[in-house]
Specification:
The protein is an alpha/beta fold.
């Protein structure tokens, strides 16, 4: 048996690998900086925290199901369940039993809040089954819903369905089904889909698969999500679930993951539940049992918290939930009960080495010898009576050891210590093993043992432990040069000496040569550090190479140039004063400062694009994909890839069952095993689906490269003697690697040997061609390549006469000829394509000619007099060393002669077999070298080849001629090195030499996958066939992933609740301790929690809360109740907008109005039931005045929606008729298509989008990026909320999904339909935005801004791509991270015209003059392609950014040539309504202080949230100036359609209270105490969503602004 996970060893290795990676990545050539970097990195505690030990003691056991049956609590029907599906003899947890008794016996509603992995599902599922089984006993069970299980995500609902299939496989009378957007209509198609997903397994008879079948015979257990429940309540076809003979039996309502229903979402869901209850029990009180479950609904167990949880349950369900202290029958919050080990018999403690000894014994055998265990216990000092008593009632060795160690005083002390909360492992070890030098390891051994021991197989362990480790990113590198050179790894603006501050500059380093760069912006002729822009813009960053000494020749070798230009010109030379930061061009007369020339350094400004430098002038290295110069900021992908690889190395192989042997004479299958295959598993979390998808491919590719190199290294090691003896070429290596990896079972069986060999050639050539620079096997000194000189050749006499020995001449030739390899000018083996993407970014066939640089053709001899190259530079340096006169001209002559008079001499030549020539059009004859002429030089083994390292550039080489470095323009000296010693700290060399060769199968699991694809991947991960699953939040909630012990979080989760959910995925079924590794990104949220990770591990989790006092939300639900009743009686008006607004029978609006004017009693009764009684009068339920908000011609929501679509259609029809009259039939046809588009929209979507019926949670504003027209696109479903899609799916933007990159290329059109076009105007001065249908725009849009009177600065036309986008042909991703091509921007209209609910007031609060206005406003999202607009084909929707004539000869997405015309300058846009609150400070007309106003904005938002008890995520805001520079804070409801939150500030006259609360919050915070409060944190102004503003948020400015008017608020505010 494999040894269990060792958290100490894992932590040591993970931290050391990470720091080693940082040292290797940022390897300064400046030795002083390099030494300082190493010293800083050796302060390891600054880069990691932990491991933190958290222990969840075992739950107390309760009765068995059999016991509850015998007691008469549960049905006897449970006795039919097999132990495989439901073990009726296994003790339930006490909290499960409590929940069952409360629901079954006391008929109570309960909130199950028992933590992750506590069996919450059984708490409600057993009562549901009990009710159904009792119906079966009475023979009354029939079709109809008894229990509704409501989930927030389809993934959770699908996971529950797997449980149901297992549980009800032998109970066919109980039916169940899942009804979501993925559920198909027709039963036949649904069955086909099921069998396709489940490997042709037939579905159970009692699983109802289709909507069709569920409507015919509703299932007893219905599983859905809240958005689909809204549809079910509205659609006439689905009335069968709530009305009629099959709708009389509703009994249970279950809400899983109830903590997600807070704020506005909680109000929406609560109203939805009230409507559901009204439908199924319209005339009597609801007999529903309501159950809410959550692992993170509240962290504390104090009475106030428990009462808050019960109150949340009451608010959510509209039913009675209680928590009365001391009255168990009135305690409806079910908590987990942990065993109190302090009450166990404390017999003392054994010898402290017994824990490790027992672990070793148990690890070596699945079924250890019990007698040996007993002997070991006795030898360790465990009393005999304890051993004897422990043997009683012990079914196996686990129970035996459990009984012994539950009385171990160390275990009891540890349990009591951790009951107080998680603790650092070093602190715990000092408590348990005081004074012991090896205390940490002994503690880990004790925890590991306790984690294995269980009273029974289904129980939690004696000590269910979990470790938490946190790793921090680099925050950047900063260097000061005065008074001495000093490096910092944290933000430093400068250094202070004698009260004077001298600047520090952000630095960067070349990945190839280690050259130092300075990064920043020039502001007022001074070089300033890069400020993290609010939107993360790096486009203006400038990079300066720091010149060593005077201005040297930094021209790039011609070999590396893509044109004849050098990488810099004389005007790129600068002088920087390191004392004051002044910067000026070198050729300017005079100095910008008076600090003195001795304080200046020389710089060269290098070319950069979007914050990236793709070519280093110092060494000539280039990369068209990635930056070769890196700031000391590590990419999140590369850093977390290092961490994932390290963690994966420590993960355990999953225990798998051996396949059962079947006595079958026709059984011909034999499983082929591979030592490379692994069942290790790692779950990786990212916050966004694109982050998760990209990391999946990044990790897979990076690990594959590691594994390839490791396998090559293994082949080299295994054949060392033969390689040296037989002087192997790379041909021999290819054959050797093939045999090695084939023997290991690396390749799939269907590959032929030729295919396998070609694959190995790709690996070897990638190394041979030095495509990875310093990190290649050659760059790391593991293997080198030496050109084999033909035996017929002899050294030229001319070189001998220069004083060179034959060996030196041979080495010079080898170095010169190595250019063919370095620059890819070799003849590739048959079957290997030099253009394959595997060799990106240099995937071309390269050649050499004597002179003349062309694309993909290098010039042996410089093609211009002023140019040089690697070969000429090398010869020049050697001749200089030899003291040759005119060494430069001699070197040129020599280089040319070597080509013409030796390598390619016309007479007999020794080189004839070495080169292959070919003729290129317009270029002439070019040459490539045969790869067979290179031999291997071993850098490893008992007697490795000599390697030399340059003292300056530090590159390794096999040859040394007069100590000359062959690197271009490098004047360093070569020195023979001991590679083992020199490279001992190199991250990559150690990795390739030591990593265990195991395969890693990586996959994405996000909401981008089809349900079938996601289910298949989840299943394969469960079985260990997929090793690493890179997921977004799809796995955060309670999905069962089986045996799993390791979790990696690629960023700090938004809240402690998110962290607990993610960490809780591991350790649920394993004997090993769970281990969570979290990476803190370079953003304030992550770094804040890294400083004190306990706030994340055991942070405060407040119970969710909301108040059902939001009139706007309630009115929308009232409208929904009314319109559902109308459609029930008049189904012909349901369906499309045409069915409702333009029905042949007449307007649906009028018919609905007539229906309401009758004031149906049934509708009034329904509304009285749904709306809380205390709100009846305010909302006008009894007197029907609520109808005004719906039907009033001035501001009624339905009247407004009706007028909007009728006016739009009317304008289009008039335009169509006019076009027809003028015989412009093309435009008329387009108008007709647009009319059809508007009429065919789904009525539910239209009404919700226009705030008539509920919108929250509806997928009405979602569009797709179509991919199914490509084979690779059949497994993904790319859909996004319109606001995000306008940027993420805009034409030209790229997304990655399931291993492919999709470029959006078409705006989807529908046959016979045209997009409505809206004209918009924007005033940049005040931010005013307005729009109108283009046909009405002349009448409705003014010529000047109505707010400030200025002329509009921008205008245009936008379309809303409501049919979605279409992707181009997919490609495989590269290592470069995708970016959205364009960003969409939000705009606000001040208010909706005719909003009768708008309020404006002017208030004087203790002398502070404030203007405050609330209204309904329009939020618009506009994407104008960076000002270029889009060009869109009128025929097929092919779209380009701006205008590009070359691409307009295009094809449609099916590949057919299209001759459609293009519309120019089209913008993408989308509008939605919400509630707006404007706060203007009338006495502050001044220049903008963005720090003040954004700090005040976020302070007031916190004040509103606290005072009005509104979920902070439900409100947001922006800052803008009105006319006369009047600062204005614009606050708005985040909820689409508005929720009435911000309106309450004016309606309830709460502004002064809110400002007081704002002041109290910022004054009572402790952050920045040492700096007079000039700071912000998560306790005052910061939150997860405003991270881009964190650096400018300052609570002291809010205090200084408000305190003069409001005084000090040092105590908790109370208001009457």
């Amino acid at each position: 048996m494999e040894s269990l996970f060792d958290p100490i060893k894992a932590t040591e290795d993970i931290v050391e690998n990470y720091l080693s990676y940082l040292r290797t990545t940022f390897n300064f050539s400046d030795h002083e900086l390099r030494d300082q970097l190493n010293i800083l990195l050796n302060h390891k505690d600054k880069f990691f925290k932990g491991p933190i030990l958290e222990a969840t003691p075992p739950f107390e056991n309760g009765a068995t199901i059999r016991g509850l049956v015998e007691e008469g609590v549960l049905s006897k029907g449970f006795l039919q369940f097999s132990t495989e599906n439901l073990d009726i003899d296994r003790p339930l947890y006490r909290h499960q039993e409590e929940s069952i008794r409360k629901i079954v016996t006391l008929n109570r509603n309960v909130v199950v809040a028992t933590g992750t992995g506590s069996g919450k599902t059984e708490s409600f599922l057993i009562p549901i089954l009990d009710s159904l089984l009792k119906e079966m006993e009475k023979n009354t069970l029939c079709p109809g819903v008894r229990a509704l299980l409501l989930y927030p995500m389809n993934a959770l609902a699908n996971d529950q369905m797997k449980r149901m299939r297992s549980l009800l496989a032998n109970c066919s009378e109980i039916t169940f089904g899942i009804y979501t957007g993925e559920t198909l209509e027709e039963n036949k198609k649904a069955e086909e889909k099921f069998m396709r997903i489940h490997n042709n397994r037939s579905p159970l008879k009692n699983e109802l698969l289709s909507r069709e079948r569920m409507r015919q015979t509703p299932p007893n257990i219905l599983i859905t999500n809240y958005a689909m429940l809204e549809y079910l309540l509205l659609r006439p076809d689905d009335n069968v679930f709530f009305d009629g003979d099959y709708a009389k039996f509703w009994r249970f309502l279950i809400l899983d993951e109830a903590h997600t229903y807070s704020g506005a979402k909680g109000i929406e869901t609560s109203m939805l539940i009230r409507r559901l209850k009204q439908r199924v029990y319209s005339s009597e009180p609801s007999p529903l049992n309501c159950v809410a479950t959550s692992a993170t609904i509240g962290g504390s167990r104090d009475v106030d918290t428990l009462k808050s949880i019960a109150r949340f349950g009451s608010d959510l369900f509209g039913e009675v939930f209680c928590w009365e202290e001391g009255v168990p029958e009135l305690q409806d919050v079910v908590l987990g009960h942990r065993r109190n080990l302090a009450l166990e018999e404390n017999w003392g403690m054994p010898e402290d080495n017994i824990y490790e000894q027992l672990n070793c014994e148990l690890d070596n055998s699945k079924e250890p010898d019990t007698s040996r265990l007993l002997a070991m216990l006795s030898e360790a000092g465990v009393p005999n009576q304890i051993i004897e008593s422990s043997k009683k009632n012990a079914k196996d060795w686990r129970a035996l050891l459990f009984n012994v160690f539950k009385g171990d005083s160390r275990v009891i002390k540890l349990r009591l210590l951790l009951e107080k909360g998680p603790k650092e492992i070093s602190e715990v070890a000092s408590e348990i093993f005081p004074g012991d030098l090896d205390r940490k390891r002994k503690l880990v051994s004790m925890v590991a043992l306790a984690n294995k021991l269980k009273h029974s197989t289904e129980d939690l362990a004696l000590l269910h432990a979990r470790y938490h480790l946190f790793i921090k990113t680099l925050e950047g590198g900063y260097v000061s040069f005065y008074p001495k050179k000093r490096l910092f790894l944290e933000k430093h603006n400068g250094v202070i000496v004698d009260s004077e501050e001298y600047p520090a500059f952000e630095c960067a380093v070349c990945q190839n040569c280690g050259q130092l760069y300075i990064v920043g912006y020039t502001v007022e002729e001074k070089l300033r550090q890069a400020v993290e822009e609010l939107q993360g813009d790096n486009h203006s960053l400038q990079f300066y190479l720091v010149v060593d000494g005077g201005f040297a020749d930094y021209s790039i070798a011609e070999d590396e140039l893509e044109s004849e230009e050098s990488s810099f010109a004389p005007e790129d030379e600068y002088i920087l004063c390191v004392k004051c930061g002044s910067i000026q061009k070198k050729d300017l007369l005079g100095n910008k400062c008076n600090c003195g020339k001795e304080h200046t350094i020389q710089l060269i400004k290098v070319k950069s694009t979007s914050g990236e430098v793709h070519k280093c002038p110092k060494c000539g290295s280039s990369n068209s994909l990635l930056s070769v110069v890196r700031r000391l900021v590590i990419g999140d992908e590369s850093a977390t890839s290092v961490l994932a690889t390290s963690l994966y190395r420590h993960s355990q192989e999953m225990e798998t069952e051996n396949p059962k042997t079947v006595d079958d004479e026709w059984d011909t299958y034999t499983e082929v095993t591979s030592t490379l295959r692994s069942t290790r598993r790692l779950l990786v979390f990212s916050d966004s689906r694109q982050e998760a998808a990209f990391f999946s491919t990044y990790l897979g590719d990076s690990y594959s490269q590691i594994l390839r190199r490791r396998l090559i290294v293994d082949a080299l090691k295994a054949n060392y003697q033969r390689i040296v003896k037989d002087e192997w070429s790379i041909n021999d290596l290819a054959e050797c690697v093939l045999n090695h990896v084939d023997q290991l079972g690396f390749f799939s069986q269907e590959k032929s040997r030729t295919e396998k060999k070609n694959q190995c050639w790709y690996w070897i050539l990638h190394e041979f061609l030095a495509r990875s620079g310093r990190n290649s096997l050659e760059g790391l000194g593991i293997v080198g390549y030496s050109f084999r000189i033909p035996s017929q050749w002899k050294p030229p006499k001319r070189l001998r006469e220069m004083g060179l020995s034959d060996q030196e001449i041979t080495d010079i030739y080898k170095e010169l000829l190595d250019s063919f390899r370095i620059y890819g000018a070799i003849e590739f083996p048959e079957g290997v394509r030099p253009t394959d993407e595997f060799f990106e970014p240099k995937n071309q066939q390269y050649s050499f000619k004597l002179s003349g640089k062309e694309r993909n053709i290098n010039s042996w001899y410089p093609s211009k007099e002023y140019l040089s190259n690697r070969r000429l530079d090398y010869l020049t340096k050697i001749l200089y060393k030899l003291g040759i006169k005119n060494y430069e001209s001699e070197a040129k002559s020599l280089l040319k002669d070597i080509w013409e008079k030796d390598l390619f001499r016309k007479e007999s030549s020794a080189w004839k077999e070495v080169f292959v020539e070919s003729s290129e059009r317009s270029v002439g004859t070019v040459y490539r070298a045969r790869h067979e002429f290179w031999e291997l030089a071993m850098g490893i083994g008992v007697s490795p080849n000599d390697f030399y390292r340059c003292s300056k550039c530090e590159k390794l080489t096999l040859r040394s001629v007069h100590d000359v470095c062959p690197s271009y323009k490098c004047d360093g000296k070569l020195k023979k090195v001991n590679l083992e010693e020199e490279m001992k700290d190199n991250h990559y060399r150690n990795l390739y030499m030591s990593i265990e060769p195991k395969l890693m199968e990586v996959a994405e699991h996000t909401a981008q996958l089809t349900s079938q694809n996601a289910a298949e991947k989840q299943d394969r991960f469960y079985k260990g066939e997929i090793n690493v699953l890179s997921c977004s939040t799809t796995f955060e909630l309670g999905i069962d992933v089986g045996q799993l012990e390791t979790i990696l979080m690629r960023n700090m989760p938004p809240t402690p609740a998110n962290y607990i959910q993610r960490a809780g995925r591991a350790g649920r079924r394993s004997d090993s301790t769970a281990f969570s590794l979290t990476y803190a990104k370079r953003r304030s949220h992550d770094l804040f929690y890294f400083k004190d990770p306990m706030k994340m591990v055991s942070g405060v989790i407040k119970p969710p809360k909301f108040e059902i006092k939001n009139f706007k939300i309630i009115l929308r639900h009232m409208n929904s109740v009314a319109i559902a009743a109308f459609w029930k009686e008049n189904p012909e008006y349901f369906g499309s907008c045409e069915s409702f607004f333009f029905n042949k029978r007449g307007s649906g609006t009028n018919a609905f109005k007539e229906f309401l004017l009758k004031k149906p009693d049934s509708l009034l009764c329904a509304l009285k039931t749904v709306v809380p009684q205390e709100l009846h009068k305010k909302l006008g339920v009894d007197d029907w005045s609520w109808l005004d908000k719906l039907m009033s011609n001035t501001d009624g929501s339905l009247a407004t929606a009706t007028e909007k679509i009728e006016k739009d259609i009317e304008a289009l029809e008039a335009n169509m008729e006019e076009s027809s009259r003028q015989r412009n039939y093309r435009i008329a046809s387009r108008m007709q298509e647009t009319i059809k588009t508007l009429k065919d929209r789904q009525i539910i979507g239209y009404l919700s989008q226009n705030n008539v019926i509920p919108k929250y949670g509806f997928p009405v504003d979602v569009i797709d990026l179509q991919t199914y027209h490509h084979p690779q696109g059949m497994t993904v479903e790319l859909s996004r909320d319109m606001k995000i899609a306008l940027s993420e799916y805009a034409p030209g933007s790229q997304v990655i999904a399931d291993g492919y990159v999709w470029t959006s290329r078409y705006i989807k059109r529908r046959q016979g339909k045209e997009f409505p076009k809206n004209r918009f105007v924007i005033c940049d001065r005040c931010g005013y935005f307005a729009s109108s249908l283009e046909e009405r725009s002349e009448k409705e849009l003014s010529e000047a801004c109505p707010v400030c009177g200025e002329k509009y600065s921008r205008s245009g036309s936008y379309i809303t791509p409501e049919f979605g986008m279409i992707g181009d042909s997919p490609v495989k991703p590269s290592a470069k991270k995708l970016t959205k091509t364009f960003s969409s921007r939000y705009y606000f209209s001040s208010k909706t015209i005719g909003d009768t609910q708008s309020n404006t007031s002017h208030e004087n609060i203790a002398g502070l003059n404030v203007s405050i206005s609330s209204s309904e406003g329009t939020l618009a999202v506009i994407n104008n392609a960076g000002g270029k607009g889009f060009s869109i084909c009128k025929n097929c929707g092919f779209a380009l950014v701006g205008k590009d004539e070359r691409l307009e000869k295009h094809s449609d997405h099916f590949g057919n040539k299209c001759k459609g015309q293009f519309e120019r300058h089209i913008v993408l846009g989308y509008e939605f309504l919400t509630d707006i609150l404007e706060i203007s400070f009338e006495d502050y007309c001044n220049e903008p202080d963005y720090s003040l106003w954004y700090s005040l904005l976020y302070g007031i938002l916190e004040g509103i949230s606290s005072s009005l008890e509104i979920d902070r995520n439900d409100i947001n805001g922006v800052f803008r100036y009105k006319p006369n520079r009047l600062p204005t804070l614009v606050l708005f409801d985040s909820v689409p359609g508005g929720a009435g939150h911000v309106r309450r500030v004016v309606q309830e006259h709460r502004l002064e209270e809110i400002l007081l609360e704002t002041l109290r919050i910022v004054e009572n915070c402790d952050c920045g105490k040492e700096d007079d409060g000039k700071a912000s944190c998560y306790g005052c102004l910061r939150n997860y969503s405003n991270q881009s503003f964190h650096e400018i948020l300052d609570r002291s400015k809010v205090i200084d602004f408000l305190k003069p008017y409001l005084g000090t608020q040092n105590t908790v505010a109370s208001y009457e």
